[in-house]
């Protein structure tokens, strides 16, 4: 089916086009009527015509099928009200549509790079944001029909591995594995670092070990594998606890690109882009300068002949276009790496690896702040462990649930508290504009009121409870939507706006567009529920209202699932 918004947009677009090709009607849902088009003013200005006069011209060319009323307001707004017959037809199509009006794209491949923690290092809150935002994008893209290839670009290569392997040997393999598998990654890393800084002999051994690792020495490779595998096993536990779709198969770390780096250099040399500077091989992409206005290098190979972070990302772009056939590439990484990605993309384009037709975006995000509005740290000043946050949220949810009288068993309550805790943490992240910082405030996140994950879960569970209290069956197919009450109509328009909300979230790569939509829908439902009794209403109102409730519940549940949030049946 074609969504309500799209139908209207198509008609308006052709009416605007008739006046000036390509003019944007700027269509939005509106409070006063069903939709409002705000494009007349810009069009009037560009044509040098009085706006109200322009409104009349557009209207003259507008196909008014399904439009019950159109009014020119203010300086040229077009307020449009749809016919109830049209809304009825649209809603009835949703009854049997498990996609709730969302079309399915064919044949597009998206590579989404997210999470990307570092081996033998704790995942910090920055990785939490990347993981949560990236996973929501993965789910939205998959649902929309993309073939999504997730890439967990873990930091599994580089000079620190010399000291990490030597430290592992000092501890003995068994002990080292034990300490990593309890998740004390930072402790392990810190101990290695301390020795490296204090002990020259250890430093020498570490250096030699890096050389052995790069040279492919089998025993060294085996020890390196061990470190990587233990860390990945730990990350997988975190993903499972968070209910994130990443699997070990998605781990394609920096080391994967090693064999491609010589070709990267060769390609760049052939394209005439490589410049030697202080022994290092660099590219100076156009348009990048430092504070003094000097050209900024992207270092491909360091003066010690080692390859760095940038080389790996260049190889990754090349691989993802040439071998994975990506139509879109997303990098869900913190805002401080903005310049890195801009430079990598610029060099990749200059080298001919990245055609203009491929959408390539750094999906940047801001910081998580503590209550003091500084970077979020634990009391002792260390990075905060994700698992610890989740446990704390679950304990609070469990305590809150225990206060309510309910028929849940201890086991069920624990499971429900886990779902609420995940919803609280994920939704708080996903509902703020990702480019902004946000304060990590567990009390606010976990509240059942306000713009929170648990509130949306609760709205959904409340809807489901209506159906549990229904004695006789109900068949949504038999329903005709007459939408006599304005609260019914508002709820209906909310339900019908789901496809455009999802498309907006995908087009802008802003999951908060979907989160905001769901919150708005839940509020429309609350207003409806206050104004319109459901179970006690006489037929045919009762059937119609039940059908609206069912569509709302399905929309909330599907929408939340696309954000990676579960929608329990009962709370
Ligand atoms: N491991 C890096 C970090 O912790 C993030 C990697 C992001 N992805 C990429 N393709 N560079 O900062």
Can you describe this structure in just a few lines?
With 571 residues, this protein is an alpha/beta fold. The protein has 21 helices and 13 strands.
How far apart are the termini? 34 Å
General form: globular
Largest sheet: 4 strands, antiparallel
Amount of helix: 40-55%
Q: Please mark out the parts with pLDDT under 50 across 5 or more consecutive residues, or reply none.
A: none
Q: Can you count the helices? A: 21
Radius of gyration: 28 Å
**Spatial strand arrangement across the major sheet:** 1-2-4-3
- Strand residue content: 5-15%
**Overall mean pLDDT:** 94
Secondary-structure content class: alpha/beta
Small molecules (ligands, ions, cofactors) in the structure: arginine
Number of strands: 13
What does the model show?
This protein is of the alpha/beta class. Among the domains are: 4-82, Gyrase A, domain 2; 160-247, no CATH class. It is built from 21 helices and 13 strands. It has helices spanning 4-19, 40-47, 51-60, 84-95, 125-144, 160-171, 173-181, 185-198, 200-214, 218-242, 261-270, 309-322, 338-350, 386-403, 410-430, 442-445, 453-468, 486-496, 498-508, 511-531, 541-562, and strands at residues 27-29, 35-37, 67-73, 77-82, 109-113, 147-151, 274-277, 280-283, 298-301, 328-334, 359-365, 368-369, 438-439. Helix 5 links the parallel strand 5 (109-113) and strand 6. Helix 6 packs across helix 8, helix 12 (309-322) packs across helix 13 and helix 18 (486-496) packs parallel to helix 21 (541-562). The chain is globular, with a radius of gyration of 28 Å. It binds arginine (ARG).
